[in-house]
Amino acid sequence: MQDPRISRLAETLIDHSCRLKAGEKVIIEAFDLPDPHLVCRLLETVSDRGAIPLVFWKNNSVLRSLYRTATVESMQLAGQLEVSAMKQVDAYIGIRGTTNSDELADVPPERMELYTEYWWQPVHIDVRVPKTRWVVLRYPTPSMAQAAQQSTKQFEDFFFDVCTSDYAGMATDLRPLVARMQAAERVQIISPGTDLAFSIKDIPVVACAGECNIPDGECFTAPVRDSVNGTIRFNTQSRYQGVVFDGIELELKDGKIVRATCKNDSGRLNRILDTDEGARYVGEWSLGTNNRILHPMLDTLFDEKIGGSFHFTPGNAYDEADNGNRSRIHWDLVLIQRSDYGGGEIWFDGELVREDGRFVPDDLQRLNVGLPE
Length: 373
Description:
Blueprint: H1 4-17, E1 25-31, H2 37-48, E2 52-58, H3 60-68, H4 72-87, E3 91-96, H5 109-131, E4 133-138, H6 142-147, H7 152-163, H8 167-183, E5 186-191, E6 194-199, E7 206-208, E8 213-214, E9 218-221, E10 229-233, E11 238-240, E12 243-245, E13 249-253, E14 256-261, H9 266-273, E15 282-288, H10 300-303, E16 309-314, E17 333-336, E18 345-348, E19 351-355, E20 358-359
Helix pairs in contact: 1-2, 4-5
């Protein structure tokens, strides 16, 4: 018997996230899924809507070998083929499962850079993000349950609860925060090891309620590119290009990351930040507001939405909240400011807006519902 929650999730992806209409085309790309149930249900739902699907079914063990043997020619060819496909569709759904979250850990950095430059950027940064209606999500697996320190059944229940949320209600709750961010000019952030200030004046603000990410719950903008000054210490581990980085600390001067360290591999961290000029500038700043997600699990799609968190992103800016920064990387780094993670403050133009992960102004109290006291 098929889990009815899969049908609800498929309908959310097709109707809410992609808003797919008859005659439109959609790519469904799946990585390391333990079974085909969600992809099959998506195909059936796409057919019901009179739309046209294209499926890519991928395996990270195969991709590991492909990346480890990468050449400019092989990555260019793969990128060119997928760019051609992406340009022909209206929407994209990316689903990632995992059997081993560290499957790409031993791919040499220089080979991952070839992938990023010749495959990832042309397909996803240059075409998919700006030119399609897209949504990305994970799929519950024992590996993800282990990362979340939950049983497989417990994590599966958590996954479907979070991923099939009331996104229309979430969008309504985010409106007052959008208004405050649009009116703000100067932001200051204080946390243990963090004292950071920047401007968001005249940068658009975007509320995220299930349109591009599942799960969702954030409100993002970008700092004025050269306005960021100070230091920041992230208290959440981050996996990037197959490697887990712990205790990342950044120092910024006039927008540029001038010092970057971490507990385990500062050399590789700095190599990523040297990918191109834009990698040492920040392309996004976002407040996490999903109070169903409270603890990190080494998965950015979940961790960046944690209630009482924010993420700060070296690399490419989104067109919707553009500060002009361009890069082949976009690396969401998460700092949780609830009291159980060390606390912290966020100020807009001298007004305390969030303290220890809880919003302070009366018009933002709905965003505290579900947070632990």
